[in-house]
Amino acid sequence: MPDKIELIATVLFAIAIVHTFSVPFFAKRAHQGGPHSGLWHAFSEVEAVFGLWAAILIIFMGVSGGLDSAVKYMDSRNFTEPLFVFAIMVVAASRPILVLVGSIVRYLARVLPLPTPVATFLLTLTLVPLAGSFITEPAAMTLAALLLKRAFFDHSSHTRFKYMAVGVLFVNISIGGVLTSYAAPPVLMVAGSFGWDTAYMATHFGWKAALAVMINAGVLTFLMRRELLIAGEHASEQNRADGDARPPVPWIVILIHLVFLASIVVFAHHPAVFIGLMMLFVGYCTAYEHYQDRLMIKEALMVAFFLAGLIVLGGLQQWWLQDLLAGLSPTLLYWGATALTAITDNAALTYLGSLVEGTSEVWRYMLVAGAVTGGGLTVIANAPNPAGFSILKGCFPDEAISPKYLFLAALVPTLVAAAMFLLPVQLLGNTGL
């Protein structure tokens, strides 16, 4: 039976989920003005939702059990992931990195036998999410979201197109990181205990994820090709009108930024190291600010705050979630994990599943496959999602992305991913997968 603190944490967790789906309501109230518009605006910031309710939980713990118990619980939480997302988002969103990635995408777009805007969109939703298996999913999300914003979202008033693009982006990022064993948070949480290396991930998950990524992006690109051409033309006209008076970014500056990015990825499990590297990076950018855009420190901090709140609240859900997972057959687990991921972080889900004893290889496969499949359904489902949400929300009405419409937009891409992960794998033998 859960204790009082666990019950309160679960109630607050449920309230935070409802709050997340209520963000558009608060955003509309904020835009209506009035003496409380600032408060409504604060409630409309989805990145603050879980941090707010986690703070209420910690205050309750301090009042009911003493300050020491609240501090002890906070000390028991591992905040490496929020800190890493903060650091990688700041570096990946810097101008030299975007110049490099944009140049690669534009070059490949010219090679493909498609109109440049169409090819650019297709590559942004395929190449960049799959690159997340190597540069990590948060970095891929940051880059893809910024590319979409600057090339299409800023130049289109088609809200339905934007929701469909965000739905595919979130799903493709979630599944695009499974080609390796270290880039996707839900895989990273269990790879060691399950004995899964990069070769295992590539043969059991990677090729299926690549197929789903290409199908999702290809279908959406075909359906939205006319809108892409219109947005691309508007973007070209805007670029010709604005120009860029700043000096071009030298290759040595781009190389230094890549070294910082790669170093932070390498030391992703050592916050003292990667935070130090990020501080050096900020100092370097300050010294050569004429090659930089504004660093996304505020946005990255808000995303980290969201993830930290999710960790604080999610850490007390084990009493019901682990037993629920343990009682499911592999098939039910697959669909159950896909659904549960929509209301809880998929890395927490796979971690709790890894604590269940006596599980088969098929059961483990279904757990992780379901967790990554459902990672695009909501903003809380996958750690990189708040980063994309933060970057793109200003392109939507009332500067808010409706969780309801995001869920609906991600549903079909999620089902495509689900079908791909149910394809058989020879290396698993006669398992029925």
Automatic annotation (TrEMBL):
Pfam families: Na_H_antiport_3 (PF07399). This is Putative membrane protein. Keywords: Membrane, Transmembrane, Transmembrane helix. The keyword Lipid metabolism does not apply. The keyword Disulfide bond does not apply. It comes from Advenella mimigardefordensis (strain DSM 17166 / LMG 22922 / DPN7). The chain crosses the membrane at residues 51-71, 83-109, 121-148, 160-185, 205-224, 245-266, 272-288, 300-320, 332-353, 365-385, 405-428.
